[in-house]
Structures are given as structure tokens and as C-alpha cells.
Amino acid sequence: MNPESENWFAKHRNLVFGAAVVVLILNLALLLVTPNVKVVTIEEETPEYCTEDLTAGITHTLMLNGTLRRTVFSAATFVGTLSIDGSEPFTLQFVRRDGSWAGKIPDSAPVSAVFAGKGFDEIVLILADDTTRFLAPGAVNARAAHVRLRSYEAPQS
């Protein structure tokens, strides 16, 4: 390096260091503000379970499509549609607060309650016409479905 370039850096090192710090802070701020978006899609046939025994009932076709959004500064939200057995899809809108999802389910919906994990990776749907019947998509058997249901019925901490 020639002496002139060393002198320029020596003269302006505070400016270069300050610019680097500003770029780092802006990148961190952008990372914190930008939402983490996850598309949730569940399309499967799942058996109906009863809370009173470990037998599986009839099989239902479940279609859940939605978007899960999370940011550092706001509560996670889920907006999507749910259809069971080809019924008219209805809209679900949930906000995650105090360790559980809260939202309104339309009165015409075939479910009365929806319980889901933090990332909507595990869900339980309580059927509207009989609260002893539920769906647990992805559960490998009736015992696993009952364990999942009980985990959501337990008080959230």
C-alpha cells in the first residue's frame, strides 16, 4: 500500500467504523421488524375420535390452509380457511397470547374449538355437534390423539 492510502484510512477510520456500525444496526432492525411467515397446509383424511374411549370413528377429509405470521414485537397471528368433508370453507383468525391461540369461530362452522401448537404443527378440532368427538390430524393412533387433546385441555403456563 502506498503511504497516501494509509493516511486516508488513518484520517477517516472513525467514519468507516461509524458507517459499519450503522449498517449493522440497520440490518438488525430489519431482521427484528420483518415478519416470519409460514404457510400452513394440512390436507388429509383423519379419523374421528371420542373422548370416552380409544376407538376411532368415521374418517373425515380435512383441508386447512393458512398463513402464520410472527414478529419479535407483536403477537403471532394465524389467518386461514378450514373445510371438513368438502363443506364450505370458513375463515379462522387467531392470535397467540399467553401460550394459546384465541380467536372467533363462525357459528356455522362444523367445529366448536380449535387447539393448535405454537407453529400450527399439531392441531385438535372439537366437532360442533358433539363436544365428545374430535379430530387430531397427524396423530398416529387413538392414544396419541387423546394425549394431544389432554395436553391442550391442561392449564397453559
Concise description?
With 157 residues, the chain is α+β, with helices and mostly antiparallel strands.
Walkthrough of the structure:
With 157 residues, this protein is α+β, with helices and mostly antiparallel strands. The chain has two helices and eight strands, in the order αββββββββα. The protein folds into two domains: 1-34; 36-153. It has an eight-stranded antiparallel beta sheet with strand order 5-4-3-2-1-8-7-6. Strand 2 and strand 3 form a beta hairpin. It starts with a helix and ends with a helix.
Secondary-structure topology with pairs:
Elements: H1 3-33, E1 36-50, E2 56-70, E3 77-84, E4 90-97, E5 100-104, E6 111-116, E7 123-127, E8 133-135, H2 142-153
Antiparallel strand pairs: 1-2, 1-8, 2-3, 3-4, 4-5, 6-7, 7-8
As for the number of domains, it is 2
Uncertain segments: none
The helix/strand series, from N terminus to C terminus, equals: HEEEEEEEEH
Strand arrangement in the largest pleated sheet: 5-4-3-2-1-8-7-6
Count of distinct strands: 8
Distance between the termini: 62 Å
Derived structural class = alpha+beta
How many strands, which pairing sense, and closed or not: the largest β-sheet?
8 strands, antiparallel
**What is the overall silhouette?**
elongated
Rg is 25 Å
Helical content stands at 25-40%
**How many separate helices?**
2
Average pLDDT value? 84
β-strand amount: 35-45%
